[in-house]
Amino acid sequence: MRFFALICPCLWFCSVASAAELRFGLSGDPKTFDPLHVLDDNSEVVRYLTAGVLVRVNRVTDKVEPELAESYKLSPDGRAITFKLRPNLKFSDGTPLNASDVARTLNTALDPKQASPKGDTFRTDQGVPVAKVNSPLEITIRYPAPKPDLERLFDALSIIPVKAEKIPSSAGPFFVSEYRPGESIRLTRNPYYFQKPALDSIRLDIQPNKDIELTRFLRGELHFINKLDPESFDRVAKEKPAAARNLGASLDSDLLWFNQAPSSSVPEWKHKWFTSTAFRHAISESIHRDDIARLVFRGHAHPAAGPVSPANKFWFNAQLKPLPYDAAAASKALASEGFKLTGGVLKDRDGHPVEFSLITNAGNRPREAMAAVIQDDLKKIGIRVNIVTLEMGSLIERIARTAQYEACLLSFTSVEINPTEQMNVWLSSGAQHAWWPLQKTPGTQWEARIDKLQMSMASEPSQALRKKAFDEFQQLVVEQEPIIYLVNQDHLSAISPALKGTQPVAAPPQILWNVGQLRLE
Amino acid sequence: MNNALEFRISASYGKTEVLHSVAGTIAPGEIVALAGLSGSGKSTLALALLRLLHYRGGSVTGSITVEGRELTGLSESAMRSVRGKLIGYVPQSPGTALNERLKVRTLLEETWSAHAEGAGSFGALLESVQLPGDQVFLNKRAGELSTGQGQRLLIAFGIMHKPAVLLADEPTSALDVITQAAVLKLFAELNQKNGTAMLFISHDLLSVASISHRVDILHEGKIVESGPPGKIFSAPEHPFTRSLVDAMPRRMD
Amino acid sequence: MRRKLASAILILVALCALFAPAIAPFDYDRQFRESPHAAAGGQFLMGTDNLGRDRFSRLVYATRISIVLAPAAAAVSVLLALMLSRFSSLTTLCLSLPWIFLFIIMRALLPLDTGPFASILLTFALMGVAGWAWPARIFNASIRQIRQSGWLLQARASGMPSRRIALIHVWPHLRAIAVAQFRVLVPAYILSEASLGLIGLGVAEPLPSWGNLLAELQRPQAVSANPWILAPLGLLMLVMICLEEVSA
């Protein structure tokens, strides 16, 4: 009873808000309001909504659109970009904003003492860019070497004011007008912004409990939930059909891989299986991806075709199709490799029964269910899988340091559409080169080829050539299957019909990306 | 003939000596009352004589002989065959001295087999302490007995093996006046019937004096006066004895 | 009468567990992939889970595991407690140990090819061994009380041998505490097994246990879809009530 007594006044308070106030839940307090030091998702939401950026990438068309800059021009050598700012720009506290503020922001981000994660995205192997203020309304940023997609970097660089405050004033459409730790954050429309957003204010309720968030949404107290699990999504679909919005495949992939590191504790005969492309392919073919999507994710996932989610419309290699389930073909392929099925147990040429342990992180029920499906699928071709759930810390210890595991079930999450984002996974020398990290020289020819393609994707100025390299890379991964891609989960959202102007996308910040166009009815 | 019990002991808890060379002699068939205020070391003396004081954190020096047999220096297992066999013990307050979870039968049998082989028969014993010997009673748990019954049962345990000497530590203090009288009478009868020597430890001089042949007065860990009850009452010598006698209720004669 | 009924229920549950293969209509890990989330009735007495596994069969097999192992672990704890309770500083030390981290380390050291059954056996064994300090503390307090009791002194004064005293006089007191502690530990261990699953100890897929079946209750929405998800909880409560009744 006490619980209700505490919560009821709060709900009442929430429900009396002005008409043009957007309300949604945040899973926790933002760790920082400093746009250059954002690392966590909650801080990123606040940063995005308050960000004054020079340009914005349209998440639907993937075109770069003007914001604080009314136009930009890339130099022919691909090393420099010149922005022309809109006149009379101001921060939310009324102080004027001009080209020197842009230069100062960039230099602060690049200052090694700041250790800003934003600065890292601007650094290259060849060095850092130099900003030159041509006039109060014009600035040129020059790199020592060509930098592909240079203009896109500025989508994430919020221009910061001179005055460093815990909650700084904003150059974007909204500014933080009130912060009650553990309770809520209120954003108010920036009166000096060059455009007037339809929303007057935004209230972010700090709500760590997903079930309460869902209940509040269903009662109409919140306007959207950015990410729902399949079970909650089905509940929304049942109770408020118009609000359930499946945004299609997300950028994330669920996957598994075998430990191929030669220095690992894997017995020599198992190492032989794991390094065999035919073996990996047979495993891949024996896993019923449709069943995983249908049973584990209630149909809200799609069989994965390769290392890139189809949600990444531009970079995804459209030639690739998910590998269909075909246990018979897998068995045949294994037989031709010398594997024999005797008494329901598959044995290799030397008579070793084929069995391996599959590690995954404990406490993730969908992942455990996925493991159970895989276990059952592989049982059908005579392979025994021993599922071991580990606490995240010891899992990472095994895959990244000691290499004491046989196979691992995990997922890769992507926040950007950028193809070089996962370079640390794909370079054979990379620390996160999952199946065999930190190789001195590429262990196989195809890994050498992947290294080469990755490098060219990072430096090739021509987008068409980069796309070609990226397509070949994807093709190679699917052929060799060092990582067996299973499904791409759908991004599931709930959006109140009262919220208009949404063009949600599967990549962050999904519903909020076009906050300027959002309005309430 | 040897005395039933002879002792001269000092006892201490840690560095604090509570009995200072207390000596006593009890002839066969004699009843001696040891009187003193609470805190004078009465209960300590009983435990010391049984050599059980170390269970309460105390230690004893001196000499204890029962029927001429020296007890100090005996091993724990040898002491075990003395306790309950040569020296009977009747503790105070049956409420705590009886394990309330056990049946009367079990307690009797266990006390019996501590020193005897085979199955004991307890009819006569229970009759002698005026307790019923029927199955209903034997099947009762100790926790279900009245205080008087409990005290009688404890006396039965004490005399079961016909000890040379019976130590009774405030055996009547938990009882009402009428039961007290009956129990004291019982002790006197047992003494006459079996010739058991008894050491009565009590703060209640008046009640024990009625059945005692001799009274020792214990004060601050020392025996300050000793003599037949008549002399103690009529001509107490030690100031403490005098105050003890003065404090007694006067009979109306 | 109530006692008889309670014993009858316990025997019935134990028989179900013993003859699980005969009673369960399907294997606990058989996936009817065309019938996920099936409602109760028809082919599936209590419906199916997300992978189309028969809930009733899983419950029967889970009972087999939990009803044997949790009491066994509780018994181990109580026995250890009885043996070790005299070392009160050891008890205090054990109570202050960060067990969860020790468990995590333990799991990390365990070979990965430990089968699901060996893993759960080990989990309960660990709980049994780790859990002794709680009952030990209670034993300790009670033994201290017994040491000072008049009846112990009386028994000694009567010349009873120490072993006989321990068996006849002291044990009935400790037994009562042991039974009470056992009753507290059994459900605690059944539930702990579920939470140990979060650090990778406990029951691995596809083996069912009361613990991992109860973990499904974390989603209240699921219960309204198939109330039989509550069955393991109901069974656990029933067994605990019956145990209480029988051992009272």
| CATH architecture descriptor text of chain C | Orthogonal Bundle
Instruction: Name the overall outline of chain C.
Output: elongated
**Helicity level of chain A:** 25-40%
| Distance between the amino and carboxyl termini of chain A | 35 Å
Structure, explained:
The complex is a heterotrimer of chains A (521), B (253) and C (248). Chain A is α+β, with helices and mostly antiparallel strands. Helices cover 31% and strands 22% of the residues of chain A. In chain A, strand 4 and strand 5 form a beta hairpin. In chain A, helix 14 packs antiparallel against helix 15. Chain A is globular, with a radius of gyration of 25 Å. Chain B has a domain of 170 residues: 3-Layer(aba) Sandwich (Rossmann fold). The longest helix of chain B is centred in the C-terminal third of the chain and has 18 residues. Chain B is globular and about 55 Å long. Chain C is built from twelve helices and no strands. Helix content of chain C is 69%, strand content 0%. With 248 residues, chain C is mainly α. Classes of the chains: A alpha+beta (521), B alpha/beta (253), C mainly alpha (248). At the A-C interface, helix 6, helix 9, strand 17, helix 11 and strand 18 of A face helix 5 and helix 11 of C.
Labels describing this entry:
heterotrimer, B: 253 residues, alpha/beta, 11 helices, 10 strands, 25% strand, globular, C: mainly alpha, MetI-like fold, 12 helices
Q: How is this fold's topology laid out?
A:
The complex is a heterotrimer of chains A (521), B (253) and C (248).
Chain A: H1 2-15, E1 21-26, H2 41-50, E2 55-57, E3 64-66, E4 69-74, E5 80-85, H3 99-110, H4 117-122, E6 130-135, E7 138-142, E8 174-180, E9 184-189, E10 201-206, H5 210-218, E11 224-225, H6 230-239, E12 244-249, E13 253-258, H7 268-274, H8 277-286, H9 289-296, E14 301-303, H10 327-336, E15 340-342, E16 345-347, E17 355-361, H11 365-379, E18 384-390, H12 392-402, E19 407-412, H13 423-426, H14 445-459, H15 463-480, E20 483-495, E21 499-500, E22 519-520
Parallel strand pairs in A: 1-10, 17-18, 17-19
Antiparallel strand pairs in A: 2-3, 4-5, 5-7, 6-7, 8-9, 9-10, 11-20, 12-20, 13-19, 13-20, 14-20, 15-16, 21-22
Helix pairs in contact in A: 8-10, 14-15
Chain B: E1 5-13, E2 16-26, E3 31-35, H1 42-49, E4 58-66, E5 69-70, H2 76-82, E6 87-90, H3 94-97, H4 104-113, H5 123-128, H6 135-138, H7 147-159, E7 165-169, H8 177-194, E8 197-202, H9 205-209, E9 214-219, E10 222-227, H10 229-234, H11 239-247
Chain C: H1 2-18, H2 20-23, H3 55-84, H4 88-96, H5 99-109, H6 116-130, H7 133-147, H8 150-157, H9 162-196, H10 210-214, H11 220-225, H12 231-247
Helix pairs in contact in C: 1-3, 1-12, 3-6, 3-7, 3-9, 4-7, 6-9, 7-9, 8-9, 9-12
